[in-house]
């Protein structure tokens, strides 16, 4: 993960896909596709019944993945057997992780060579107070979210905590699958945020739907993450065409 | 000694509570927290709250001695008549408090979730009163089974949005309301129970505390007792119970009984008895007891009453039930139906189906002759007439 950011010459492309969607065992096929295209790393969603910060597209893929029988045991099995060497960041809500057992989850993540975590409902202060020491024992970074409304002091805190991964900049204040990011009013704020983050890389996500919006949003940052737009293409069987634009 | 009601800095009651929220919500929750802790001790704020509770809601609600229930169960049984509040349930105590807070925060738009529709109606009501724009999310299944309340909300100018995700009940309406709040951060999210991220559980309990404040005063006037021996209330998220227990939590001599919906039975797979079936976890921003499967997916609960059809309980209840301070009982659908029928025929009071669960708990308790028992009659049953009529009760219970 660190090497990826260190050696980058242009904004990195990360694709979000939901584990177990559209078929339970589709991960290897998608990873091979990502390997053959200009994808730099994967954000792999652990499906959850009640994804509070997600819009209809990711909700639907989660529901289908759960109906397909996806769970953390199966997911770690698939990760252990994967052929691709693309870095994988696991994205998931806290509840399934806590019930699985946080330490067991971290141990299996370590074994499966997971590069980082994004846990949207793990709030920063709470993390520091209750969970940080457990995460740190396994040395896989948690990548914290910030939004254009996050205060400067909190952005710096997020950057410090995410220094071995990246800060996830949420482009606008809305759930996933919203409008195109990167309008001009916010670009200035993005740059401020980038500078507040210092050496910690900044990836932008939420609302990036194509090459145009990717270039607009990610241009002065370390890269961008595409989720709902990719999943919509995947649903139609047009994922290869979608990735060809990058 | 530290009060049971006190949370730590992060909003935990012991192990349970907190604010497990995405960063997108952090500024809004922070703003709310600051406003609540500023105004909860503000004299003008409290005066306005009390004034509206009196002149608009119709408080204090009576504490009614039920001679027939007392004779039947061999104790002194009182009913705290929250059903006589404006809009027919305890829910309005909380919506009055929150709308006053919203007004002071300069908010003009309100979003809320509703299960039985009682909180939705109470929210639509205070929004009409305060000229606020009102959006209510309600599960598609609940829109069907609580139709009269949908009409009431719309008639008062609220927009009712059907929640079509998941089990299409209260949990999903709550998800949608939270998503709406994320997308519209200037909106005030007026939550309906002692659930959600800190400070909601503490705030809603605070606004409902008027119930036990009155019980205390009224009991002293009527019976010379400083406190009841037993307080019984139903628990969906737990707001009417939190209000009825509030001033008694720190007095170990008062037995507190929380009644959950057993649905078709604890072991039937169709239940909403969170205290029995739940494991600790995170739902709607709070660490609490929660009905979930082996992989932490939230289970779809079942109860005949829409207001109890929720897979979690408030963190205060999770903490007090886990510690043994509060006893939890599960009442099945048919027992609740029987209890509703019994109260209707014997006292001429048609209770809400949620409330009927609390009444049915009388059959599960052993009383001493002079025990003073208060049941929180959280709401009236007009909204449930269709369900009550469609379900046969068992004559043998009378
Ligand atoms: C009459 C009545 N009682 C109880 C409840 C359950 O809510 P809570 O547990 O927050 O009191 C509801 C919810 O809609 C209700 O309408």
Task: Characterise this structure.
The complex is a heterodimer of chains A (246) and B (398). Chain A has helices at 2-6, 27-36, 56-67, 72-80, 94-100, 102-111, 124-138, 152-161, 184-196, 211-218, 228-235, 239-244; strands spanning 12-18, 41-45, 88-91, 116-118, 145-146, 167-170, 202-205, 223-226. Chain A is α/β, with parallel strands linked by helices and 246 residues long. Chain A has an 8-stranded parallel sheet. The longest helix of chain A has 15 residues, at 124-138. The mean pLDDT of chain A is 95. With 398 residues, chain B is of the alpha/beta class. Chain B has 2 domains: 19-52 and 91-204, 3-Layer(aba) Sandwich (Rossmann fold), CATH 3.40.50.1100; 58-88 and 209-397, Rossmann fold, CATH 3.40.50. Chain B has a 6-stranded mixed sheet with strand order 3-4-14-9-10-13, with helices on both faces. Chain B has a 4-stranded parallel sheet with strand order 7-6-5-8, with helices on both faces. In chain B, strands 1-2 form a two-stranded antiparallel ribbon. The N and C termini of chain B lie far apart (46 Å). The mean pLDDT of chain B is 96. Chain A binds chain B through residues 48-50, 52-53, 55, 59, 63, 66, 71-73, 93-100, 120-126, 129-130, 144-147, 149-151, 154, 158, 170, 173-175, 178, and chain B through 10, 18-24, 26-27, 165-166, 171, 175, 178-179, 182-183, 185, 279-285, 290, 292, 294-298.
């Amino acid at each position: 993960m660190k090497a990826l950011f260190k050696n980058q010459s242009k904004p990195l492309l990360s694709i979000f896909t939901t584990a177990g969607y559209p078929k339970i065992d589709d991960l290897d096929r998608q990873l091979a596709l990502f390997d053959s295209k200009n994808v730099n790393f994967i954000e792999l969603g652990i499906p959850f019944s009640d994804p509070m910060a997600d819009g209809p597209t990711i909700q639907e893929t989660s529901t289908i993945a759960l109906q397909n029988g996806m769970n953390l045991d199966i997911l770690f099995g698939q990760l252990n057997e994967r052929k691709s060497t693309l870095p994988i960041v696991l994205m998931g809500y806290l509840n399934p992780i806590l019930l699985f057992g946080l330490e067991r989850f971290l141990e299996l993540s370590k074994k499966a060579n997971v590069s980082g975590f994004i846990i949207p409902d793990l709030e920063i202060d709470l993390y520091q107070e209750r969970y940080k020491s457990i995460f740190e024992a396994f040395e896989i970074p948690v990548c914290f979210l910030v939004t254009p409304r996050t205060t400067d002091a909190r952005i710096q805190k997020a950057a410090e905590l995410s220094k071995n991964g990246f800060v996830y900049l949420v482009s606008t204040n809305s759930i996933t699958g919203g409008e195109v990011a990167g309008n001009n009013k916010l670009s200035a704020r993005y740059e401020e945020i980038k500078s507040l983050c210092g050496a910690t890389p900044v990836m932008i996500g939420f609302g990036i739907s194509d090459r145009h919006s990717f270039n607009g949003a990610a241009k002065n940052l370390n890269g961008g993450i595409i989720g709902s737009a990719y999943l919509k293409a995947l649903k139609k069987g047009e994922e290869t065409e979608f990735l060809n634009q990058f | 000694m530290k009060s049971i009601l006190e949370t730590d800095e992060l909003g935990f009651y012991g192990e349970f509570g907190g604010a497990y929220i995405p960063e997108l919500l952090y500024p809004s929750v922070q703003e709310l927290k600051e406003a609540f802790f500023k105004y909860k001790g503000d004299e003008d704020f409290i005066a306005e709250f009390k004034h509206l509770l009196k002149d608009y809601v119709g408080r204090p609600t009576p504490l009614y001695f039920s001679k027939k229930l007392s004779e039947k169960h061999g104790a002194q049984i009182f009913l705290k008549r929250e059903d006589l509040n404006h809009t027919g349930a305890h829910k309005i105590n909380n919506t009055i408090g929150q709308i006053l807070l919203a007004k002071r925060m300069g908010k003009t738009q309100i979003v809320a979730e509703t299960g039985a529709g009682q909180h939705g109606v109470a929210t639509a009501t205070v929004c009409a009163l305060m000229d606020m724009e009102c959006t209510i999310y309600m599960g598609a299944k609940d829109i069907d089974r609580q139709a009269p309340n949908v009409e009431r909300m719309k008639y008062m100018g609220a927009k009712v949005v059907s929640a079509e995700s998941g089990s299409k009940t209260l949990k999903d309406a709550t998800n949608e309301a939270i998503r709406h709040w994320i997308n519209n951060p200037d909106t005030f999210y007026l939550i309906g129970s002692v659930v959600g991220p800190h400070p909601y559980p503490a705030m809603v309990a605070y606004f409902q505390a008027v119930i036990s404040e009155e019980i205390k005063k009224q009991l002293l006037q009527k019976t010379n007792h400083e406190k009841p021996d037993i307080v019984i209330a139903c628990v969906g998220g737990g707001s009417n119970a939190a209000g009825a227990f509030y001033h008694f939590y720190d007095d170990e001599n008062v037995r507190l009984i929380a009644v959950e919906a057993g649905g078709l039975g604890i072991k039937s797979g169709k239940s909403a008895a969170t205290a029995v079936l739940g494991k600790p976890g995170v739902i709607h921003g709070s660490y609490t007891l929660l009905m979930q499967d082996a992989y932490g997916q939230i289970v779809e609960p079942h109860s005949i009453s829409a207001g109890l059809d929720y897979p979690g309980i408030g963190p205060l209840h999770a903490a007090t039930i886990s510690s043994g301070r509060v006893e939890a009982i599960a009442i099945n659908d048919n027992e609740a139906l029987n209890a509703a029928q019994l109260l209707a025929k014997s006292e001429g009071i048609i209770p809400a189906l949620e409330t009927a669960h609390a009444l049915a708990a009388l059959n599960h308790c052993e009383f001493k002759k002079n025990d003073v028992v208060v049941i929180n009659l959280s709401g009236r049953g007009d909204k449930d007439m269709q369900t009550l009529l469609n379900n046969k009760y068992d004559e043998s219970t009378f």
